[in-house]
Amino acid sequence: MLAGLLALVLTAALAGALVRFPALAGPFTRAAAGARWRADAVPLAGGLAMAVGCGLAVAVFGRDLPGAGAVLAAAGTALAVGLADDLHPLPAWAKVAGQAGAGVVLAALGVRAALPGPEVMGWLATVAWVVVAANALNLFDNFDGAAGGAALIAAVAAALWWGLGTGPTALAAALAGATAGFLIWNAPPARLFMGDAGSHFLGTALAGLTLVDAGRVGQAVPAPWGLTVGVPVVLLAIPLFDTALVVLERRRHRRPLSVGGRDHTSHRLAALGLASRRVALILWGLTAAAAGVASLGVLGWGWFTAGAALLAVGLTALGVRLARVRAYD
User: Fold this and answer.
1) Is residue 329 part of a domain?
2) Would you tell me how many other CB atoms lie within 10 Å of the CB of residue 257?
């Protein structure tokens, strides 16, 4: 776990410098536009701090680990796309193309979805999963500590799986440490945001981690096809739930999908009267529950299916309740 500790220290120090010396983050500091949960000017350069902290920790402790280079290369590609968007907002098609490019990098370097059938299916699934995960983390970055906390919990889960079984533990630990170092400055009330660069980096890195694990949950033996698909989806279930809630509600109320607003899970919880820190704790608790269900994969398909079904029922009930919260004028 030394990789995680090094990443935490490096990221926390770099992020702290960006907060304490605002001139360093000048190009990335701007007031939020549109209906957002914060309207004050906060630096958006936290993603750069995480990428540097994670990358250096992996270079020191895990550069020879299987899949580490591929995951970092893909995450770095996505980071560049998000960074460009932070500096000058890109059209939606350009961001999706960049995310797909990150997926191609991941697949080309040997980390692909372990699916049956022609190899092209693995390539297509890898690209699609990177796009989905990057967008889910990007959309989930809508409240202080939300996306960072979800990514931390998912990375810790992977590190624990591999630490108890088999896998490139240092890679997951480095990502967890970098995210924890960022959260020191991003927990409510946040003094630093990750920006699109950070959410793209985290989403792609987590997609890569789940593909490296391939649903094995740390075991050395290949996982059944259902776990190969199911474990990654459940691990990121809460950001995916938030994305689904927003899409369904905006379509139901005939709102444009591409225009941001205060209609995410976090905003609806806050509208119920919960303080910012309590909202963050609830989101983190839900993510931890999803990680626990994903961990049931180690016990077999039956246990995982039962846990995933209970999680789906619970999230459906939560979605129905939150949909009743007034989010649109």
Assistant:
1) no
2) 9
Q: How far apart are CA 35 and CA 46, in angstroms?
A: 22
| 22 within domain boundaries | yes
- Specify the amino acid at residue 60: V
Q: What is the pLDDT of residue 24?
A: 75
Owner of token pair 């994903």: 294
Residue 6 backbone dihedrals phi, psi, to 5 degrees: -65, -45
φ, ψ (nearest 5 deg) of residue 41? -80, 115
Contact between residue 193 and residue 247 where contact means Cβ atoms under 8 Å apart: no
CA 16 to chain CA centroid, nearest Å: 22
Cis amide leading into 189 (omega within 30): yes
Give pLDDT tens digits for 213-238.
999 998 988 899 899 999 999 999 99
Rounded to two decimals, the pTM is: 0.94
Which DSSP state fits 23? G
Nearby residues of 80 by Cβ (< 8 Å), 6 or more positions away: 98, 197
Domain count, the chain: 1
For the record, the structure tokens of 168 come out as 């490139």
* Residue 36, SS3 per DSSP: coil
Structural domain span for residue 135: 2-323
Residue whose entry in the numeric block shows the structure tokens 């949960």: 37
For the chain, the maximum distance between any two Cα atoms, rounded to a whole number of angstroms, is 54
What was the pLDDT predicted at 64?
84
